[in-house]
Amino acid sequence: MALKKSIFGVIVALLFVGVSLGQEVGSQTPSESFTIKVSGQKTWGITLGFGDPTHLSLEGLEAGQLTLNQSLWAQIEGTVLDFLTIKASFNDQLGPGFQEFLVLVDRKPWYAELGRFVVGDEGEALGVYNKRVLGARITVSSETFSLSGLLARLEGISESLTFTGNVGQVELTFYYEDPSQPWIPAPYLASVEGFYFFTLRVPFIEGFSEPRLAFRTGEGFAEFLANWGLEYLRATAEKNAETSLPSGAYLVLQDEGDVLLLRQDPKVLLRNRVLDLIDLYNAAYGLTGTGKKEYPFVEGSELEKAFLSGLSAFTEIRVDEEAYPLNEARRQRYLSLGETGILEDSVVVEARLPGEREFRSLSDPLLSAYSVRVFSGKGVLRIDFPKDFFRSGAAIHTTFNYIREGGTFFLGLGVIPKSERVYLNGQLLAKDVDYAIDYEAGLLTLFVTIGPQDELRVDFERQRGALGVSTEYERYFLGATLGLGQGQIGVWQATDVGSPSPSSRTMPNTHSLAVLSWQGKLEEWDYSLRVGFSQNIFPPDDNARLPGRNKVNNIVSTRTADGEVLVFAHQNGITVYRAGRFFSYGAGEGLAGRAALSLLPLTNRLLIGTDAGLTIVDLTEPGAFDRIRSWTRLYPDDWNEGRTEKFQGTKVLALTSDGKQVYMATEAELIIAPSSALSKPLDWQRLSLPSGQPTVLLWAQALYLGTTEGLFRLSPEGWKREEVPGPIYALLSRGDELLVAGDEGIRVLRAGVGAGWVAYGVPVRSIALWRDFVWYIAPDGIYREGEQVLAGDFTALGLGLESLWAGTQADADFNLSLWRVDPEPERFPQTQTGIDGRDLGQFADLPAAGHTRSGPSASLSLSRKLNDWQLGIALYSRFPGYEEIGTSGRSDAHGVRFTARYTAVPDLSLTLSGRADITDLTTKPALRLSGGVEGTWKGPANVSFSLNPILSGLSRKTQFSSDFQAGFQAGENPAWNFGVSGKLTAPEFYLAGTMSGQVRYQPWSFLALSLSWSRPYRTRGAPGTETLTARAQLTGVTGYAWTLSWEENFSHPLDREEWSSSRNLSAELRLAPVTAFWGRLAPRATIALEATPAEWRVSGTTLANLDFSTHGVGLRFTAAQGFRPATERTDRAFSFDLSWSSSAWPGIQPSLNYTRSYRILLHPRYPPQLSEDQSLEARLGLDIPQGKSELVLTWAPEQGCKATNRLQYNFNFGPISLETSLTFKDGKISGKTEVEAALRLAPQWGLNISGGLLLGAMPVRVAVYLGATLAASF
Amino acid sequence: MRFLLAFVLTGFGVLGATVDVPVELARPARDWALFGVDLALPGFLANPATLGFAGDWRFDSTCSSLFGVGQVWAVSLVGPVVGGAATLLDSSGIGADLSYRVWAFQLGVGIPFGRVGIGGKARLLRPVAPKESWGWSVDLGFFWAGPIELGLVAESLFAASPYSGETWARDLSVAASLSYSFPRFFGALGLAFTDIFTVPTWAVAGEVDFGVLALRAGLRSTGLCVGGGVQFRGMVLDWVFTLHPDLPQSFRVSFGLRWP
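Output (structure tokens, whole complex):
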């Protein structure tokens, strides 16, 4: 419906344009007026390559394959007939979000926009903020009246992210079990048990110590591999027994010695290592396609767990000649916080004990034996909790702040281009001036410095349907505004179009809004009134449809290599019961579809009919269900491949077999497949179905099909209807009798004739023959020939493991149980079976009532000037149901505020403010009174102060807090400032803040001194650290320029007396250039010293530029040394750069550049580690008639030697360039020659022809390519 | 996104085998915006019978990305009486085992007889990856340039599928359009029913042309199209945004030449 509205709106816009033109024709002689400016370029390219595929792939080509490409970019701007303006920019190499298109019609009194534009840009649309749309907006206006209408499609979902200074806040919870699936342990990094770790016996030295994962190979290891069918990997594993742990897989902590933490679950490390070994094996033997070896286990299966557990017994972590068996890794101590730079004072930890519901603070007396410690630089929380904490139900909750590095903020993927509004402390920032944004990566980079208290807010839109953003409907936006004099009214609706399908997870949302505003003047008061009402049906955070209830569809027993197992088919897959445990398998493990509808056990195979095809499980191997190669998926596409007559069905609703053939009933046909040729669908036959939807199949001397319409028997003449009305739910053969379960009960048929009833007058869903009795499921439970055995909502019966079993449908709380009915009833709850009670493929609608938010909002503001004061009063009321379109915030807040600003005296500013707010009026009202006094005075000393008291919770627990700040600043030289800031809270008295001061003095022009001091204070908690920083800088320019700077930092935690210090010293000397007969020399030197308690470092650089008359030489020498006392690690670095260039020979431009560097790591325990690097580049440029030639020679040890010559001639038709390069690396030569000619065909047309020859030696490989690109510029 | 990828990949494998999809995907932006209704507009290759009423020669080229999983490269040349197009549909960038590459060629001829036009079009399909094969079909078109323009195309009257065991069903598409002309602009509005025997689809589309600037919109069951075009110095730029009910928004821009 909304699509039709859209096209209606667009056609209206087009016709409106036509009407306007009609008026133009009728009113006056129109002036011919078309000005269109179009600029851009279109290219067509074609390339063809022949020869060695490897060389060609480096150029992006395939051998023998024509590569075609086109590109187009264009900017369009113009006016048509003086009132139609078009602005557009296109680039077909970018996505739709980057294309701009807007047509403006401006013809009084009409104004229209058609294309892509923003609604609610800085408040221009009442009730709407910053929505980018694709559609049409039409406005008609006069001096006192305006009316506009909008019809558009919304492109994105509004989001807003706020960052407080450079501090981020994180909230984490760690669990023992996965909270959404409590029968599964929590994921590794979210588990309360934390990292696996080893306490190292030898200190870890960075740069020297290298953790390695190693297998203890030998006979035992070989036997282990053979037992698991991986004997082929033995040689590869022995040859590659040891490998370095990737740097991201571990972390080393200094905590009572050095501790190695494994960031990855050891099982994942082992799995990845086995996968790497299999890849190495395949590469060594050139195995590809279906011939290559694959990882044999279903990931996460019990079989794989058993394999990895066994493998870990042969695995160890080796560090510095010490070996740590993987099985001896410990846990229950270190948790990952995910961020570094954590502010330790901000860390709050709570624990939930097993069996409890609420979290307790660690200060709770019950948790006196619990303690934590933060490793802020590593992002690790150490927990010292009693061992009995780590049980089912345990959880740890923590919040903390951390310092965010740099000025880059991650917004997430799918940001709509140009939809962002960036505010710093409420001020809108300008793109490319104050910030840059990468829309594709979702990264915002600030160019302005952000302080700890600054607030950065980014409002933007995220593309609907982008990664991480689910959207099931189109969303349209309609609106109208009417302006009359000083007033304006706007009505808007953003609505999802479409009806939910059975698998839709959300309900469509409709958000409607009406807003009225009025401004004016009443006596001396200026007023502004705004009233709004919004209704949001199925808002985004309350629109989840109800999942269906899972149910068991079928139960069979089958024999595997491990013995008899029981298989339960349900809506989310199958669950296998063996050896007293349950194991579930779904589409990810090998099922063709999500829901398992029917089961058929055959010899050594199990057939599973699903909602999207057929799955065959080969049961011949031990652990068959846990082996990838055991599963074969057959989708309808596979059934129909090569067939003329296609199968129409997709769901396999029923299965049976007569021993030689398998019969499958889909929703569209009966398929007959030979048991021996199940994997060859070409041999399958198709038979049409009788009336009704198939429900059950049974072979009992003939093929019987139960449907929703009745029972049918297949005869040579076709389907014959039996005398049992539908729907049929189950069939069972008992001797020469056929038992038919339906809505009327269980009918007995003998030779096709009715022979009584086992149960009559009650619908029967499932039947089984157990211990000579007929057991059946009625709506209220399980019966044994008329006698109720178990009450409940059962759906399937099955026999196996010498018992009768039953499956149920999940209840309203999505609890689904399995039962062993006989001999002894036993219930297996969900926590044991692991079956999700929700049917995640079926959802039901929600009623709108209960999922609708609506509410009003109103505000009135008054302002006037009264003598020397500027007064303002505002009243507001906003109920929680009120939401504006384009903002993501709601509140239940009401109140009044006033401000008074004194403006009479230029050097004095004083502001008084106060407000009273009631929050949560509709739930738990709370009153909050706050005020403020702020002022500045510029006199002999500049004084600033502010006091902001807040009184809150008057109806509950009353709290008082007040922020305060006072600052003094005076002098020019010396200049000093002093400030106190803090916060006071009551009734639990708490005072905290910071005192700071600074003195700056420049006694002489060449000497600048400063001394800074800060000291925190607080009445409780960690006392903080006092710091004192002294800086001095000497500069001189007498004959030469020099700078000497020194910074000394002292700090001490306030609960300790001893101070620690660090310093930075640097010096720079720039000598005046010396000019003599031989030329000009300009030398410069710098030296720096950095010393902290953890490390000291000294570095120096000397460089000199020597200019002869026509030659220039540059020399640079750098040396550095650092030492870490804690690890006794010394590192030294040296580098040398020499460059030369000359203009001595006309037409010849030679240059040379040589770099050499060394790095040495030293430690008393280890041999020195030396790494070095060098590179050489020589260039020779030659000016030739009508052209230029440049020869470049480069050499570096890792990259070999490369010579490149580029020759360019300029002809009348255009330039031709020839580039030849030869590379010699690792004993191999390769070369490339490329010719390129750029031809000017016509003023706007150009043709670029290129060709290349690629050569490789040892072995000899040749490739050739030719290409042409035609370009039209306009 | 997984659904999108699976849909497009499955679609490539299945739809890429049919003649229609590579041909339709290659339509220039103007033809795409007027999809279906162009059967009843003069000078469009979709209905070869309209070629006899083409006023000038048109060369169009389009390169478009299919939701990032494939590329369409297309060129077409249409003029009085004759027209042709070449298309390459390529998704080889997805992965070694998921590579589809299909060439499609069209050649149409249309002869006018007064107000009536009759034409025929041959379509050639050449799948290259994953398997090489050939397929072809022949269409017949009819066009009446009356007060209301009517177009009719009988598709795949004779055809051979490039895939064994598959047949291409014959199909029928019809359209009607009304052109209007004012001193300063002209345009067209039309209605179409395409693929009546296989996947019946309706379409409505319209165009307003000021000479230098044109604005277009089209609605069909598969989505809404909004676009336009500018003409300058014998060159033409056309563009169209397509809003799909189930897939992300797509965009197409074409560059063309017009002469004389």
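The longest strand of chain B covers residues 116-129.
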